[in-house]
Amino acid sequence: MSETQPESGRSRVTVLALDRWGSVLVGGEGPPSAILRGGESADAGALRVFEETTGELLEELHLFRDGEASHHIYYCDPDLDLAELDPPAGTSLRYMAPVEIEEAGLPDEARALLTRFVGSSAYRAMFH
After folding, report:
1. Cβ of 103: how many Cβ atoms within 10 Å?
2. Residue 68 belongs to a domain with what CATH number?
3. Structure confidence by residue, pLDDT tens digits, 58-85
C-alpha cells in the first residue's frame, strides 16, 4: 500500500474505496497503491492491488482524472465491512472521513491526493 514514487517510466495505480458515508479506505501509508507489473494494464493493476490489500475483488471501478499520466487513480464505493476484509499480516485498514485527512499523519502525497479527490466533482457526484 505504499505511495512511493515509481522508477523512471513505471506507472502506478491507486484505488480510493469509499463507504456509504464518504470515508476512504486507507492503511498506514494511504489508500491501496502499487507499481504496475510489466505488461499489466492499469485496470488489471487496480483490481490486483485492491484484492492483495483487502482480500476483496472489486466489481466496478471509475477512473479519477487527476492530471498525472503515470499515476492511474480509480475510485469506487463498495462500502466494505472492515471486519470482513483480509489484509496481509501486519496491515491495518480503516476508513478515514474527509475531515480527518489533514490531521491523519499520512505521507504528503497521499494526503494531497485524498484532499483533491474529496474536493472533486467525481466525489460530490457519488453523494447527490
Report:
1. 8
2. 3.90.79.10
3. 999 999 987 678 999 999 999 999 999 9
